[in-house]
Amino acid sequence: MKEILREIGAIARALDSISNIEFKELDLTKGQYLYVIRICEHPGIIQEKVAELLKVDRTTASRAIQKLENKGFIEKRIEQGNKKNKLLFPTAKSMDIYPFLKREGEYSNARALEGFSNEEINSIHSLLTRVLHNIEIDWEEVKKGHKRQY
């Protein structure tokens, strides 16, 4: 069987490394740009939902969000009627850099798919969506404390 996940992992690590270097001048490090993008795209999102979108645990998300709040990239607001939920909003600082972050993502996507036909691109997307769905099943179970059976 081909080691598909090794290839996917290598692609993800390479793109993350590039982004971390390119976004350092923006004072964004270690994948923080991903949080900024998601919060700009979903103003008022709760922390748990951000963690779910990025496929990270709550503690990792909490630390990253706290650092971004301290740096002035995001703002937390208490949800009306539910004081437990803190809604996350981008600040002007985030909104100013969001177009640049978005362009970088679009460039990386175009670069990755260079030379592929529309049919191949649709096929890759469809197949990766299925791979993600399969992995999400285990991710949800492991988050609940269950062990996978190898």
TrEMBL record:
PROSITE patterns registered for this protein in UniProt: HTH_MARR_1 (PS01117), HTH_MARR_2 (PS50995)
Pfam families given in the database record: MarR
Keyword Iron attributed: no
Residue intervals of the HTH marR-type domain: 1-133
Top-rank taxon, per record: Bacteria
Signal peptide per UniProt: none
Keyword annotations: DNA-binding, Transcription, Transcription regulation
An example molecular function term from Gene Ontology annotations: DNA-binding transcription factor activity
The keyword Ligase appears for this protein: no
Protein name stated in the entry: MarR family transcriptional regulator
Native source organism of the sequence: Lysinibacillus capsici
